[in-house]
From TrEMBL:
PANTHER family: CEREVISIN-RELATED, PEPTIDASE S8. Coiled coil: none annotated. Belongs to the peptidase S8 family. Its EC number is 3.4.21.62. It is an enzyme of class 3 (hydrolase). Keywords: Hydrolase, Protease, Serine protease. It comes from Prorocentrum cordatum. Residues 2-162 form the Peptidase S8/S53 domain. This is subtilisin. InterPro entries: Peptidase_S8/S53_dom, Peptidase_S8/S53_dom_sf, Peptidase_S8_Ser-AS, Peptidase_S8_subtilisin-like. Pfam families: Peptidase_S8 (PF00082). It catalyses: Hydrolysis of proteins with broad specificity for peptide bonds, and a preference for a large uncharged residue in P1. Hydrolyzes peptide amides.
Length: 370
């Protein structure tokens, strides 16, 4: 929606009118991306954006390009909006970007190639927090796609889903009051040798082990993702994470985790009996990182666009345990699980929810660096 004149000028009331149209008439779920900055703090616009967020809309705004405190600019100062500052290649804060406690996250904004208004095919490399803001807006749109019920969640729950893939302390050149948080952080190129936090597993499910090897899970059934034994005992584990995968589509790779079980002495110390998650759980809490010894784990519930329920699992710090890590995210051989069943293309079994809402499951697990 165009809210400024051809010279890039306008009134706050014009922005509020656009926001209120989205609130009253726009399709939902929705993301409002505002690459606009003005001086001062408008209470009227704060009320307008607050109403959008309360209605399930995620509002992402640019921090501004004055190399100053974003709290002095509108709408960057508004707490209910996600305010985005800019960093350059390598993670250094862009020299023009506003900063301070009102900036919630950072994204690439220096030398961003995009389309340009001079023609239907024109492109131009431009810099500004107006370029950084859409990176986070796009991630918010993906969050809604993967979690169709997100619009009915609280803003805190939506932000928890949005921040599942994140990196802290990545951007350099910030002040002590800055939130050094990146939603869309670059990932390093996997190397064949183990790295301290190189393990990972993402997708439906796509896995990346501690060596950086990436592969798709093709076998249904129960799989050990992490196993850290206590001493020489295989049975008595410090941490044991298993997941049950089901094939819920026509493709051999349409494999989804329906259950995740986290046991072992580290899990029992954090929560007696460990943690047990199901895609069919009716009472879903806001996902939080759980410390299990030196490992941290988070499980997130969601639905696919077709309404299939799934569990996302994220793990970090596997390389810091000081122990041998077994399981598909660790040192175990994955050659067998990447081969599809011979009959997978001929017969696909669908599991049915017991809550009357259709087919269930999906998943992904991630072990991620800081």
């Amino acid at each position: 929606m165009k809210v400024l004149d051809d010279d890039g000028s306008g009134y706050v009331s014009w922005m509020i009118a656009a926001e209120q149209w989205v609130l009253s008439s726009g399709p939902k779920p929705a993301v409002v991306s505002m690459s606009i900055t003005g001086d001062g703090n408008s209470q009227n616009e704060k009320a307008s954006i607050d109403a959008l967020v309360a209605a399930g809309v995620t509002v992402v705004v640019a921090a501004g390009n004055q190399n100053s405190d974003a709290c002095g600019y509108n709408p960057a100062w508004i707490p209910s909006a996600i305010t985005v500052g800019s960093y350059a290649t390598g993670g250094a804060k862009s020299g023009f970007s506003n900063y301070g406690s009102c900036v919630d996250a950072w994204a690439p904004g220096s030398g961003i190639l995009s389309t340009y208004y001079t023609s239907d095919t024109s492109t131009k490399s431009m810099s500004g927090t107006s370029m950084a803001c859409p990176h986070v807006s796009g991630l918010a749109a993906i969050m809604y796609e993967l979690n169709p019920t997100a619009a009915s969640m609280t803003s805190t729950q939506r932000e928890a889903l949005l921040s599942v893939g994140q990196r802290t302390d990545y951007v350099t050149g910030l002040t002590a009051s800055d939130n050094n948080f990146v939603f869309l952080a670059p990932t390093s190129v996997p190397t064949p040798s183990p790295s301290p936090d190189g393990a990972g597993a993402v997708g439906d499910p796509h896995l990346q082990n501690i060596h950086g090897d990436r592969f798709d899970l093709m076998q249904a059934g129960s799989h050990v993702l992490i196993h850290i034994p206590r001493g020489m005992s295989v049975a008595n584990a410090l941490l044991h994470v298993s997941a049950v995968a089901s094939r819920l589509g026509g493709h051999c790779a349409d494999m989804y985790f329906q259950h995740v079980n986290v046991t072992g002495s580290w899990a029992d110390a954090a929560h007696p009996g460990g943690y047990h998650y199901s895609a069919l759980q009716t009472e879903v809490k806001t996902p939080q990182w759980v410390a299990l010894g030196k490992v941290e784990l988070k499980v997130v519930h969601g639905r696919t666009g077709k309404g299939l329920k799934y569990l996302n699992m994220y793990v970090k710090h596997l390389g810091r345990t000081g122990f041998v890590v077994g399981g598909l995210l660790g040192e175990d051989d994955h050659a067998d699980v990447i081969r599809p069943d011979e009959a997978c293309s001929k017969q696909v079994s669908l599991e049915v929810n017991t809550d009357g809402q259709g087919s269930s499951s999906a998943s992904f697990a991630v072990a991620m660096p800081e």
